[in-house]
Each structure stands twice: as structure tokens, then as C-alpha cells.
TrEMBL record:
Keyword Phosphoprotein: no
Location, primary (coarse class): membrane
Membrane topology reported for the UniProt record: Multi-pass membrane protein
UniProt superkingdom: Bacteria
Family note: Belongs to the cytochrome ubiquinol oxidase subunit 1 family.
Subcellular location: Cell membrane
Organism: Lactobacillus intestinalis DSM 6629
Record InterPro entries: Cyt-d_ubiquinol_oxidase_su_1 (IPR002585)
Transmembrane feature ranges: 12-33, 53-71, 91-115, 127-150, 184-205, 226-248, 338-363, 375-397, 431-452
Protein name: Cytochrome d ubiquinol oxidase subunit I
Signal peptide boundaries: none
Keywords (A to Z) from UniProt: Cell membrane, Electron transport, Heme, Iron, Membrane, Metal-binding, Transmembrane, Transmembrane helix, Transport
Amino acid sequence: MNIVDLARFQFAMTTIFHFFFVPFSIGTAFVVAIMESMYVKTGNSQYKKMTKFWGNVFLLSFAVGVVTGIIQEFQFGMNWSDYSRFMGDIFGAPLAFEALLAFFIESTFIGLWMFTWNKVGKGLHLFFIWMVSFGTLASAFWILTANAFMQHPVGYSIKGGRAVMVNFGALITNPQLGFEYGHVIFGALLTGSTIFAGLAAFQLLKKRAISKESKQIYHKTMRLSFVLMFIFSILTIGLGDLQMQYLVKEQPMKFAATEAVMKTTGERAPWSVIAFVNPKTHEVKGNIDIPDMLSILSYHKTTGSVKGMEEINKEMEKKYGTRIAGHKMNYYVPVNTLFWSFRFMAGFGTLLALVSIVGLIMTRKGHETLYKHRWCLWVVAILTFAPFIMNTCGWLITEFGRQPWTVYGVFTTAQSVSPNVSVASLLTSNIVYFCLFTILAIIMIALVVRYLRKDPDDIENQEPKLADPFAKGAF
């Protein structure tokens, strides 16, 4: 592997691990805010216990997410210094807003929310958790503003060999940002609701005595989660559909790769359910096609040709050249990775929508059959892991589909890497990061498992009591 490959591997490893926790914390913060809203509206103490119990799971995800986010930011200075020099003027603005505004709100109100139970009014305490949720959503907005620019650069000019921002408004009204933000946020909210449904199912499956009240809280958690899963799975799929239609025009190579279209189709394009592409010969084998379906998915009508990767590559060679900064260019993207990532992402999204509908039917009042069948609970419990696979696949499509560019059509990945790093230093840092992430993952899993040995009743009965350190006259 060369320096560019190793730097890309390290960035991918770091970002994928960090992205496990970003949708996790965004989604769970939102669902916890809804739980507390239900407590404030109804006055039912079960909702308060539910909020406090699941709120601690959110806090664990937030803590690990912050650590992995800090590690990820090191990447830009370590391995991508030429990218930072070229894009710093533009990339720095949204990241500064994220750190100084969104993260400040998020972390401040988390502290207020954690330490003011029973110390401020219910309405004010509810305001704190909604501000936490607002902070996570705002944080994602600024990060995705930077990413959307890399996918679709707007509002800039090149001066002195650097990209300079000339229109901040264009940056935050980037059409790519609208589709990307909506899809990612609804996916994150789907993640949070699915995780709580799955963890509640795990709690019910445990072979130990559960108090009647704790059991009712798990039932309420699953019922609420199924409602949210249904809403957010539909919205995620809908935004994903709009985003794919946008890609047909703006990033046709990425779109063609997600559908394994090597040669431009006829007016009635078939959709491949499965396919295997030889990236060297560009042959597509083993495909099972549904007639006209790709035209329907692309244009919402039965006719419409889809450009193939071969034709798009020729167009890009004509537009950008066959060499950039001394590097021979290849505009093809990893087609098999994108094709299967898209199917796993869309497949799990559809599965979660179906499970939420069945779950709502099987948990309706007077016909609560889901809790009586352990295999049903196991299905919901195992789906706890589905959003992590789904989100990772979505990230792979977004970032691999942009290659060979870091900023689409402007700056290549080969141009972006730090000139002073070596293969030895990258191998060493890759090994160190891998070990660090493995340890963090083990700690995170151990903390969640240890915490889930308790039930909502246990948490409520273990309220910390403030003690006066001078009460015993020690001083």
C-alpha cells in the first residue's frame, strides 16, 4: 500500500468508528427529550424513570463520541496537511460554528440536565434536554455543511492556489446540504428509536426477576420506539429517494456505481437486485434484473436512460484531463462496495419500517402479543445492531462515491495528503489507532452491559445524595 492508501484507510477507520456514536447520540438525545416531554405533560412517574434510565445510555454514547471526534480532527493536521492548506479558509468556518456554538450549547445543557433533577421546575428541566437535542442537531448541520461543500463545492474562488470563500450564504444553502442533512438526521433519529426498542427487548429477555413497574416501562419504551421507528424510517427512505434523484444529475458516477450500471442503458432501464462487477474488465455478472425499475427509481416514470460508468469516465477525462498534478487519473469508483452498501442500507431501512408496523400491531392495547413470544423479542433485540450497519453503508456510499476527489472536481485525494508523512509513520499510527479504538469499543460495550444489569426501579432508588463534607468536623 502507498501513502495515499494508508492515509485513506486511517481516515476511513477513524470516521467509521466515530460515526457509530454520532447518530447514536443524536437519536437517543431526541428520544429521551420526547420521553421527558411525556412525563411533563402527563405527570406519570413511569415516564420520569424511563427518561432517567435511557438518558444514562445517551450520556455514555455522548462521552465516547466526543473522544472519537477529537481523535478524528487530528487526521487533518497529521495526514491531510495539503488539504488543510488548500481548503482551510472554507472548511474552518463551519467547523468553528460547530465547536464554538453547537457543541458549546450541547455540552453546557447536558451538564445542567444531569445535575438538576428535582432542583429546578419540570418545565425548565425539560428545556435543558431539548436544548441538548437542538445542540446535537445543530452540530450535525455544521459538520454536514463542510461535507456538502466537499461533495458539491459552491461560493468559492481560487486565489493564490487556495480556495477562498466568497459567499457564505451559498455554503449554507447548498442544495447538497438539504438532501444530505435531512437523510442523515432522520437516519440518526431512526437509530435512536431502534436502539431503545432493541435494548428494551434485551431487558425483557433477561432471565431474572423484573419488577412490574420496570416491565411496564420497557413495554412503554418499545411502544414509543415503534411509533418513532415508523415515522423516521419513512422519512429516511423518502429523503434518500430524493437524494438519489439529485445524484443522477450532480454525481452520476456515484449513482451509476450504486446500481452497477457500466454501460449506458436504453430508455427503459432495468434495476439489478443483485450483481457482481469485475472492476478490471467492467463485466457485470450474475445480475437479476427487474424491467423498467431503474427508470422508475431514477425519474419516477417508466422511461429514462441512465448513464453508465464507462461513458461518465470518458466525459470526466475530457473535462478534467487524464493527469492532475502529475498523477494519472482514474475516475471510476469502487463499484462493488457502493452497489452492496446501497442494498444493505436500503434493505435494513425497509426492514426497520416493516418491523415497526408489525411491532405496533403486536403491542396495541388489549392485544399485546409481542411480549409473550421470546422469538419476537429476539428479532427486535438483534435489530439493535442494524442502524450501525446501515449508517456505515451510507457513509461508504457518500465518501467512496466522491473519489478520486476530496473536493469534487476541484482537489484530488492524491493532492490532499501530507507531503512529509512516510509509510512507516502511517503504518505505526494505523496500528495505534486500531488498538485505541478496540479498547474504546470494549469499554463502551462493557459500560452499557454493566449499566443494563440494572432496571429503571434500581436507578430511581439509587439517587445520589449530596453530603456535607464538613458535617463530621474533619476540619
